[in-house]
Amino acid sequence: MIAPAFAHAVALLGTATRQYARGADDYARYREVLLVFVSFYERALALLTAMVWCV
Question: What top-level branch of life does the organism fall under (predicted)?
């Protein structure tokens, strides 16, 4: 009676751990894309500012 419940609890813990790791990977990907976007935005803003100052 206890063994199946324990096995089920271990399986749930493994599933939760995998989902947490997947979520961390998704967050890392999201953060990387966000940093690239911010870097591009900063460069575009600097270029626009330089163009305005030259005119």
Answer: Eukaryota
| H helix runs in the chain, sequence order | 2-54
Half-sphere exposure of 19 (CA within 13 A, CB side): 6
Q: What is the pTM of this model?
A: 0.49
The two tokens of residue 25 are 């990977």
Residue 5 dihedral angles phi and psi, to the nearest 5°: -65, -40
Q: Measured between alpha carbons, how far is 41 from 4 in angstroms, rounded to an integer?
A: 55
